[in-house]
Every structure is written in structure tokens, then in C-alpha cells.
Specification:
It is a single chain. With about 400 residues, the chain is an alpha+beta fold. The chain folds into three domains: about 5-145, Cell Division Protein Zipa, Chain: A (2-Layer Sandwich); about 155-295, no CATH class; about 300-410, no CATH class. It contains ten helices and 22 strands. It has helices spanning about 20-30, 80-90, 105-115, 135-145, 190-205, 235-240, 255-260, 270-275, 300-310, 315-320, and strands at about 5-10, 35-40, 45-50, 55-65, 75, 90-95, 120-125, 130-135, 155-160, 165-170, 180-185, 220-225, 225-235, 260-270, 280, 295, 325-335, 350-360, 360-365, 380-385, 390-395, 400. Strands 2-3-4-6-1-7-8-5 form an eight-stranded mixed beta sheet. Strands 9, 10, 11, 12, 13, 14, 15 and 16 form an eight-stranded mixed beta sheet that branches. Helix 3 (about 105-115) crosses helix 4 (about 135-145).
Length: about 400
């Protein structure tokens, strides 16, 4: 099931590709990455064993012609000049390696290796997820102590034939040793919510210490008091639930990409169905999706997002200096005691504020919403909160919205 993680780097200076000594010397100058071994393999070409901090990776590295497939989509914002440079590029360097262990860390380390090879990168083609990554984002992610979001490891593609039917399926999970995910017979009204179902399930698969096997139930959301428990079913078995579909049929799977190791998401409506493996199409939950569904973030992802937001506070402060920008900040506040899960485990409610001032490692901010579980404050109240309580932030410029993940746009 596991496939290699194949990335292609397009450096800003195409001449850097012509002389391998250039990127080899760049690697030698990196204090966190070293080369332990190099040898030539008859099938894979030049093989380099990298040591990244305490981890080791063997990667195939070689020049390659570049032609960006039409299904690749930009994950980040590129300038018109950058697009022109990408279109003009004819060569890149591929870095192909196997993930072993923590998939998120392997992905991060692959970006670190790539970033160490070239001082300036136009973009990176992440082939398993069929994404085009900004070189500026790669540089920022590589220098971070916080791992990239799990969603970077995969893509959810939406395929339509021009009608109402939509076929959703992932790319990228196989490099993590996982099966790909699908939702059949989605439509233009609900495909965004179905997208969130797939994304939530995929992230849980990536975060889980134990494999989530087909048939295992996973709680991912709730809406209108109803719990959404998803499970995965091999696509061939799932076809009997969708006899009238026109997309995602056997005719669309004349390749190993969509034919093997891919499962359709289904629903367990109650504990009895879960215990007896009684499957229901996800469309059964559509009736509740219009009632503000809440998709769950894991504790691990909440901590990761908070760590990234705090690490990149300098970018937020720089943006705040421009008074044409609006900055909102999410702060974790201790809830009232009756909402704690236990006497010694305080819970937090994460609430959005508008930034008004910055003082001595703290923000002065105005509450923009009514809290659910914190009494004594209301929308419009202003308070002072330390940087350490920040769990997310957003900058609204005249042109776009920028999150901590997009902070390279504020450079």
C-alpha cells in the first residue's frame, strides 16, 4: 500500500540544477542536515542518505524535466511573475523518499532537505497530493519548529461531469501507508460538507497511534444534536449502495490510483449498526448539514495550531502596524467550573477577539462574539491577554485573509 513521497523542486535559478555541486554544498553548510552516504542504484539512480537531526532518510535525487499536470492545483498564492517563471521552467530536481514513522515529521523533514538544497525556490510539486507548494511557504515551514498541518499530506479532489453529481476522493494518503478515501454521489449543494467529512477522517487516520481499519467507527462531527460517526468500506463493496452513480464507477478506475487501496466513507447511525457493521451512505446525514455542523479538532491539532500561531506572532504584529488591516485573535479562556470534565481538569473555550493594542507581551482586544461557557464577559468587552493564551489569529488586508500558515505573505 505504501508509496514513495515524490517531490520535484523548481529552483528560482534554473542554472542551479546544472551543477550538482551547488546544492550539495548548500546541504553541507546546513547545521541540521548532513549527508551520510551516496551511491548509485541501477533502478533509482543517485541515492543519498540524509541525516536530519536524529532521523535518517534514503532519497533518490536527480534532475528531471518539468511538465506540470493539469490536475495539480496551487496550494498557495503565487504572483503573476512567479507563475510566468514556473511556466518557463523546463527542469527541476526530484527528491523521492519513503516515509517511515511519524508521517507528519517525515513530510516536514523532506521539506527541510529540499529547502536546504537551494537558497531560493519557486515552487515544489508535491506529486502524491498533486499540489503546487509555494517556495516561500516551504522556506517558512522548513524553518519552523512546528510541523505543517496534516492536511498538507493529502488532497481531496472533486470530480464533476458538468451535472450535479460530484465524486470526492483523496490523493496522498498512500505515501503514509494508508488507504485513500472517497465519497460517492455527492452533489453541488453538499460537497463542501462532504469534503470536511473526508478531511476530518483523513486527519484522524494520520494522527492515530493505532491503524484505523475499514469498518472502524470514527466520531468526526455533530449537528442538530446528532453524532456523525464515519467508517470506511472498500469501494467495490460500497458500489452496491450506489447503483445509479455515473462517476466513480469501474470505468473510472482503469488505473492503480483509483482501483486499489481506496475506501468509500459510510455512516454508522447508532452503536448497534457499528457493532454489527451495518453501513449507511453518508447522504443520510445531509438533512442535518444545514444546521451548523461542528467538525471536531483533535487535542493534538489544537495544540499544533496554537504553537504555530504563537511562533508567528511577529508576523501578526507587523501586520497590525498597518492600520488598513484588521487583525482578529483567538484566545483560549478558562470556562466556568461546571463545564470542566473533572475537578482538576479546567476546560477552555476558544473565542475570537479584535486586536486593539499590544503591551508588554500581551494583547488588548475586544470580544467579537458571545461566549458559550465563560460567564462575566460579553461581546464588546475589552481585556488584556498574554501571548501565551493565543491559539490562532487572522489578518484581513484589502486583498486577502492571512493565517499563521500563510504568514510568508506578510514578509
Amino acid at each position: 500500500m505504501r508509496e514513495p513521497s515524490f517531490m520535484i523542486v523548481i529552483p528560482k535559478n534554473q542554472s542551479d540544477i546544472e551543477d550538482p555541486e551547488i546544492f550539495m554544498n548548500n546541504l553541507k553548510d546546513n547545521e541540521h542536515i548532513s549527508i551520510k552516504d551516496m551511491h548509485f542504484d541501477d533502478e533509482r539512480g543517485m541515492m543519498i542518505t540524509f541525516k536530519v537531526d536524529d532521523a535518517e532518510y534514503e532519497a533518490a535525487v536527480a534532475p528531471t524535466q518539468v511538465e506540470i499536470p493539469s490536475m495539480f492545483r496551487p496550494e498557495h498564492t503565487f504572483t503573476e511573475e512567479e507563475y510566468q517563471q514556473i511556466d518557463a521552467a523546463t527542469m527541476g530536481i526530484y527528491v523521492c523518499m519513503d516515509f517511515d514513522g511519524d508521517n507528519n515529521k517525515c513530510f516536514h523533514d523532506q521539506l527541510r532537505i529540499i529547502n536546504a538544497m537551494f537558497p531560493e525556490i519557486l515552487c515544489v510539486l508535491d506529486c502524491p497530493s498533486e499540489k503546487l507548494l509555494s517556495g516561500k511557504w516551504v522556506a517558512l515551514a522548513a524553518s519552523s519548529s512546528v510541523l505543517p498541518a496534516p492536511r498538507y499530506l493529502f488532497t481531496v479532489q472533486a470530480i464533476s461531469d458538468g451535472g450535479d453529481e460530484v465524486w470526492l476522493h483523496t490523493h496522498g494518503l498512500k505515501r503514509c501507508g494508508l488507504y485513500e478515501l472517497e465519497i460517492l454521489n455527492s452533489n453541488k449543494e453538499f460537497f463542501n460538507d462532504h469534503y470536511k467529512m473526508i478531511e476530518s477522517f483523513a486527519v484522524r487516520m494520520l494522527e492515530s497511534d493505532d491503524p484505523i481499519e475499514p469498518g472502524d467507527g470514527v466520531f468526526v462531527a455533530q449537528a442538530a444534536g446528532k453524532v456523525l460517526t464515519l467508517t470506511a468500506l472498500d469501494w467495490k463493496e460500497a458500489m452496491k449502495f450506489y447503483p445509479d452513480i455515473t462517476l466513480g464507477t469501474g470505468e473510472d478506475r482503469n488505473d492503480e490510483v483509483h482501483d486499489k487501496d481506496t475506501c468509500v466513507l459510510m455512516i454508522y447511525r447508532n452503536d448497534y449498526e457499528e457493532q454489527n457493521k451495518i453501513y449507511t451512505p453518508v447522504q443520510d446525514f445531509n438533512q442535518f448539514l444545514g444546521q451548523n455542523p461542528m467538525f471536531m479538532f483533535s487535542t493534538e491539532e489544537t495544540k499544533r495550531m496554537s504553537a504555530l500561531a504563537i511562533e508567528r506572532i511577529p508576523y501578526m504584529l507587523k501586520a497590525f502596524e498597518n492600520k488598513d488591516n484588521t487583525v482578529i485573535v483567538k484566545v483560549g479562556l478558562i470556562t466556568d467550573k461546571e463545564h470542566w470534565s473533572s475537578e482538576d481538569k479546567p476546560e477552555k473555550e476558544h473565542i475570537w477577539f479584535e486586536l486593539k493594542d499590544v503591551k508588554d507581551g500581551s494583547i488588548v482586544a475586544e470580544l467579537t462574539q458571545e461566549p458559550y461557557y465563560v460567564s462575566g464577559i460579553k461581546a464588546g468587552d475589552t481585556g488584556t491577554y498574554p501571548f501565551s493564551d493565543i491559539t490562532d489569529w487572522l489578518v484581513f488586508t484589502k486583498e486577502c485573509r492571512i493565517s499563521p500558515d500563510d504568514a510568508y505573505l506578510l514578509s
